[in-house]
Amino acid sequence: MSAEILFAAPVAVAVLSAGGAFFVDSPVRGAGLMLAAWVAETVAVEFPPIPLGLSVYPQDFVFGLLFAAGILRYLLRRARLTPSRVLILGLMALLLLSLARGISIYGVKIAGVEVRGLFWFYCGCFYFSSFSFGRLTTARLVRQWHLAACALLAIAVFRWIATGVHLPIAESWSDPAQPAMRVLNSNGALFLCVAFFFSIFLHLSHAGAAWQRKLYLLLGPAILLLQHRTVWIVTLAGLAILFREHTRALRMAALTIAAMLAVGTVLLFSAFGADFVVASLQSSATSSDTLVWRVAGWSQLLFDRTTGFAGYLIGDPFGAGFARLLGRNRVEVSPHNFYVETFLRLGILGVILVIWLYGSQLRACRTLAAHASTRFSARVFQVFLLVHLIYFMTYNLGYEQSLVLGLIVGGLPPLQAAARAPGKNLPARPRLPAPLRPEPLRGST
Cys-Cys crosslink for 203: which of 4, 45, 213, 261, Cβ 3.0 to 4.6 Å? Predict the structure, then answer.
């Protein structure tokens, strides 16, 4: 196997470098490839591995191409190393170091399986953050996100119908231990949540196509009915942040959301019967078993581990596993907490870099919120950053969210340039007059 890997490695590098060149100058192409893989994975529930000596998944090819394109951007396009990009490079370096240590101890197969989720996410961050996003490029990326969200909505509606009428195909995504309405995983619900905020932003800024500005009317009920409590919390928190200084806009948003949730719930009651929907909602809203199970697992992983100074500083190598004993059951799945997993695999240095990265972006957004020309765009970025930070407490981010973080890291410098432009550096008023008319994102394409 080692000889096969030594032979295949240079071939893979050459192929990925050649393919990555197609994505060097176009984040829209890279986002299109990644989102297509994301939607296809949602349809398939889980991709089967491709046997190539090692078990390879389609996402490995996708993010191998984006990783190669990111390297080419820094080598050939001389992408500027801003502090935020340096932090992402630091996280990538820690991840690759932990992977190399894991391969040397546990082998490629075991270490490779465990690293995949984080590797895909950081590869996407590495690639997308290397661009500077202006208004036109941002609009295209948001449109792609909304098209993918429409596909996920169609998948969710089909699965609700199939579950309600007990089609045999529903067994491929249903879990007897989960609420019946939970037909998409938490990352799918978070994807719709991000699309929801993109739609509200376009609605309030009078930008984008008409269907994009009204899409939140469909996304709101879907988020509620998918019954992921963490996504409920981040959605409510995001709305409070977005409208915290605009009481009239907040009242209008609250009334609109209440109306669309009522309509969506009535439609589902009519389609599937009240007992089916109510039982599912009640189960999701009142159950505490999942939280108790997770906290017990985190406690064991954090306080019962035996590791040395290196393990605390840079983490245990990938492949070490997450085994813990909960009751009488041995559990080996991931901790369902991004902070815990980062600490276990990238050490305290990894946690510091993650907090520093998100904290620096939040600080930049707070500064931009003091300028009238960039205030609303900065507030939207704040929403996405805090959505991620809250979501980290119970889940890992999916690789698709790397586009959001990359968009923020690459989109803030043009906003900062706009705020420094002559005539644009006046402090914003405490409240915008109604109706709320924020300006859309600015910056060079």
Answer: 213
Write down the pLDDT at residue 265: 56
- Tokens encoding 306: 């035996």
**CA pair distance 127, 66, nearest whole angstrom:** 6
Which 8-state DSSP code applies to residue 438?
P
Give the CA distances from residue 185 to residues 45, 198, 258, 302, 347, in Å, rounded to whole numbers and listed in that order: 9, 20, 24, 26, 28
What does residue 56 show for φ and ψ, rounded to 5 degrees? -115, 140
- Of these ranges, 48-52, 333-337, 361-365, the one predicted with the greatest mean pLDDT is 361-365
Backbone angles phi and psi of 240, in degrees to 5: -65, -40
Packing angle between helix 375-391 and helix 402-420, nearest 10 degrees? 150
DSSP string, 325-370: EETTEEE-S--S-HHHHHHHHHHHHHHHHHHHHHHHHHHHHHHHTT
- pTM (predicted TM-score): 0.85
What's the sign of the alpha-carbon dihedral 191, 197, 198, 199? positive
- Please give the pLDDT value at position 151: 96
- Dig out the tokens for 320 from the structure: 């070490």
